[in-house]
From TrEMBL:
N-acetyltransferase domain span: 125-263
Pfam families linked to this entry: Acetyltransf_1 (PF00583)
CDD domains membership: NAT_SF
Name assigned to this protein: Acetyltransferase
GO-annotated molecular function: acyltransferase activity, transferring groups other than amino-acyl groups
Lineage: Bacteria, Bacillati, Actinomycetota, Actinomycetes, Kitasatosporales
Organism from which the protein derives: Streptomyces pratensis (strain ATCC 33331 / IAF-45CD)
Length: 263
């Protein structure tokens, strides 16, 4: 499949016809946008915009989403803007409405077929599947060590996914002895052919030893067993070069525009 065909498929299945990513969330199309609404610890925001969106309609849609989310008392929500979304200048319209752009990420996709590479870990490191609250705490600890951010929302979302739909969710922690040093997650979206890779953070002293690649290989094997065709990643500048070397193709970039209703 050519990259433009893959991007069109991704937009259709994963954005325009997105499914909720947790039990407390609801996805709906309202006018020119598809949005997800959940609780304070869920991901809230706009996933897709109509391809023929005009500047005037964009301004109206932006105002409507600000009203929708602030009326629910949410502290923040996100407009997930892709580089190929229209109209031209949509990012500027969002900024003018009070959204703040966060670092862009690269949308990369790879076929699952043929990705039966071995899961090679450094000596003394093993993988632990996350299936219970104790495993979630280890994953949160690894996430906080890797990214330096609070893992409270990650804890909430992971516990909810394990309770609600464990058959379509995978989480794993790389352990060095009793210390969690890396973690990663995979969301499998039934009926789409896509499995999304998330997390993939490694504590600084353990980077460059192949753990990130091992976590990709582990999740690819799981996706293959479940019959998924494609792996999808929103990659940072740190992980994008590794993924390209592993055969992933860049389709677009995505920038989170975040609207905060409170400091």
């Amino acid at each position: 499949m050519e990259p433009d065909e893959m991007l069109a498929l991704f937009d259709h299945r994963m954005r325009e016809h997105a499914r909720p990513d947790g039990p407390g969330a609801h996805v709906e199309r309202v006018g020119d946008v598809v949005r997800q609404t959940g609780g304070a610890d869920d991901w809230n925001g706009v996933l897709w915009t109509a391809p023929d969106l005009s500047p005037a309609r964009a301004e109206s849609a932006i105002a409507a989403q600000v009203e929708h989310y602030t009326a629910r008392g949410l502290g923040a929500f996100e407009w997930k803007l892709y580089a190929h979304d229209g109209p031209a200048g949509l990012g500027g319209l969002l900024a003018a409405a009070g959204f703040e752009a966060e670092p862009a990420e690269t949308l990369l996709v790879a076929p699952v077929a043929g990705r039966s590479t071995p899961v090679e870990l450094p000596e003394g490191v093993r993988l632990r599947n996350v299936t219970d609250a104790a495993g979630v705490e280890l994953m949160v600890r690894a996430h906080e060590l890797a990214f330096g951010t609070d893992g409270a929302q990650l804890r909430h979302r992971t516990l909810a996914r394990l309770a609600d739909a464990p058959d379509t969710f995978v989480a794993v922690v790389a352990m060095a002895g009793d210390e969690p040093v890396s973690s990663a997650r995979m969301e499998m979206y039934p009926g789409t052919g896509f499995a999304g890779l998330w997390g993939g953070g490694t504590a600084a002293p353990w980077r460059g030893r192949g753990i990130y690649r091992a976590l990709i290989a582990h999740r690819a094997r799981v996706a293959a067993r479940h019959g998924y065709r494609f792996l999808q990643v929103d990659a940072t500048d740190l992980s994008a070069p590794i993924l390209r070397r592993l055969g992933f193709t860049a389709l677009s970039t995505t920038t989170p525009y975040v609207y905060r209703t409170a400091p």
